[in-house]
Amino acid sequence: MTPHPPFVPGDTDGLSWLDRGGEAGALIRAFDWTRTPLGALETWSQSLRTITAMLLLSPVPIVLLWGPQGIMIYNDAYSIFAGARHPRLLGSEVRKGWTEIADFNDNVMRVGLAGGTLAYKDQQLTLERNGKPEPVWMNLDYSPVLDESGMPGGVIAFVVETTARVRAEQNVREGERRFREHLEAMVAERTAALERSEANLRTIFETSHLYQYLLSPDGNVVYANATALAGVEATLDDVIGLPFWLTPWFGGTPGMPQAVEAATRRAAAGKSEHMSMALNLPTGVRSFDFSMRPVTDESGNVVAMVPEAVEKTARIKAEQTLLQVQKMEALGNLTGGIAHDFNNLLMAVQGSLDLLRERMPQEPLLLRLADTAIAGAERGSALTRRMLAFARRQDLTTESIDLRQLVEGMTELLRRSLGPTIVLETYFGPRVPTIRADANQLETALLNLAVNARDAMDGVGTLIITTDEDWMQEGHATLSPGHYVRLSVSDSGAGMDEAMLKRAIEPFFTTKGVGKGTGLGLSMVHGLSEQLGGTLILRSRVDEGTTAEIWLPAAQVHDLPASREAHVTPVLGRCAPDTVVSILTVDDDDLVRTTTVDMLEALGYQVIPARSGYEALQVLEATCVDLVITDHAMPQMTGTQLAERIRERWPDLPMIMATGYADLPAGQQLQIPRLAKPYSQATLADAVHRTVSRPR
């Protein structure tokens, strides 16, 4: 796989999710999406980015039809299917890209955007190919894709062309007709005719990519084609003459021999059989659509049976991957929403405690109780930051981090996550320098590694976390020479062989069972390490355990901790000479709005509250203010939309966006200072002082 690009300071285009997308990913990055209703790539919603990144990684032809117009986004496999229409299909409306089947696609969009699904097996369509209309057959599966609002924002289509198989089946049916004629001739004449019939049938079978067989009326194997034999790594001599249900195709799957025997008996009685099956084959677990048809003579007697199996493993894996991604997206939306509401509650608690501590009697017991309450609120804030980081909705910034303090702070959480049968040991180097990283992301990465180690040990064993420093010399594949800090997580689990180790950081690769893992944990840790200028190194041996090492550059300058003291001297405003700053604060939450007003007034500012963006605009039309502090997540008019209106009407008016969310592309384009919720009085004072004091 193509490695992640090296981290470049200042590279904030936010498009790294396209890096592994092959030719289609490069075309998507280069395409001018502003000409489409989707807008610039930087403004795409998280759901649109997630589903696009997923389909680019899939080997199955997938096309995403986004929005009411069905704007087309697809992967490399689909571009091969599109043929000469590629790349002009990219970014086009589906009904215009495939004009000859516009009505068909109109129905797909109508059903999908209403929340419905469609599935077509061997659907015949007439497409323009090689300059003329040609009949084609396809398996088509359409499902709605939800946007941030929880409503269908588009339709995703899995496209598998079955033209070759359908035509092969037509050939097989023609072959069966000929085969019956040959069998009848053999019975009537007893001549070298049987050999010619078998040769003709064998030719038909060997041209197919299906698993195909010929059985005698009693269910014994007469013939199997090369595709079927390759699936079990066998020769024709290994299976010929065996009862079909006792062959290697079914022997490794519990209960399957009995099911196939019953189906064979029914086919021998003249019935056609159809079923889906997952088989444990020597080449791995494979999924099939299976059918068995009897071959009869003119009198209706069954003279043979023809089983066939169409493999659908790749499609099922792609569908499972999509389902898992959608589940993670839904969980992220839920987590982010809860954290946002909790932030507002903490805002009121933390702000009120700050004000209470300043006004209460300076008695040691009262001060200790207030400080304990403030510390609890700050721990709650840290929890919401982790929840928002998981949901990818927090403004993530780097800071100076002492790894020992970070690990020790997570020890209790790690012990609860690992369970009582895992022994946790920690060892810290004597003089490990600090690093520059995002603490929330690094904590999530460490928790991912610990949970992976727990699963590798089946819940019983020893987990060792160590920190130390090292110097990287010339010649390493991904690390530049220099001073590094190493965070290591070692387990005593089953370990991995070389083949598994090479694939361990691939997205969606997992050795866990279905539903027990997304296959994204190690790839997320790897991406974070490289984003911070380091790398993830895995070492493992079978039956000896695994060690995961996060290498990060040592920090050159130690950051000083932020002061808890607020700026108590308010700066003068511009609305009237020799007056303090007048501030308009906008928030739909009564508790947050009231707390913010109290904190600002305690700092000496004149404050005007507003419950909504519309109320704020009315205040601005009637009153001069020096600064607007607005929440982002408000009904009817968001903080970003309010900021755009203010920038149009009062371009020089300073603004601050107060939010716990990171996904605010419009606000970033407007270059509005951000204030992360929940904030203390000191943080609020600093933000106001910086915003109204800076040159305009």
Topology of this structure?
Blueprint (H helix, E strand, L loop, with lengths): L21 H9 L15 H12 L4 E5 L4 E4 L1 H7 L11 H4 L4 H12 L4 E12 L2 E15 L5 E10 L1 H27 L3 H14 L4 E5 L5 E4 L1 H6 L4 H4 L8 H4 L4 H13 L4 E9 L2 E13 L5 E10 L1 H47 L4 H27 L8 E3 L1 H16 L3 E7 L6 E3 L1 H18 L4 E12 L9 E10 L6 H6 L17 H11 L3 E7 L3 E9 L28 E5 L3 H13 L3 E5 L2 H10 L4 E5 L7 H11 L5 E5 L5 H5 L4 E3 L4 H13 L3
Parallel strand pairs: 12-14, 18-19, 18-20, 20-21, 21-22
Antiparallel strand pairs: 1-2, 1-5, 3-4, 4-5, 6-7, 6-10, 8-9, 9-10, 11-13, 14-15, 15-17, 16-17
Helix pairs in contact: 2-12, 6-7, 12-13, 12-18, 14-15, 15-17, 19-20
Describe this protein's structure.
This protein folds into four domains: 144 residues, Beta-Lactamase (2-Layer Sandwich); 147 residues, Beta-Lactamase (2-Layer Sandwich); 166 residues, Histidine kinase-like ATPase, C-terminal domain (Heat Shock Protein 90); 112 residues, Response regulator (Rossmann fold, 3-Layer(aba) Sandwich), CATH 3.40.50. The protein is 42% helix and 23% strand. The chain contains 22 helices and 22 strands. It has a five-stranded antiparallel sheet with strand order 2-1-5-4-3. The radius of gyration is 33 Å and the shape is elongated. The chain starts with 21 loop residues before the first helix and ends with a helix. 33% of the residues are buried.
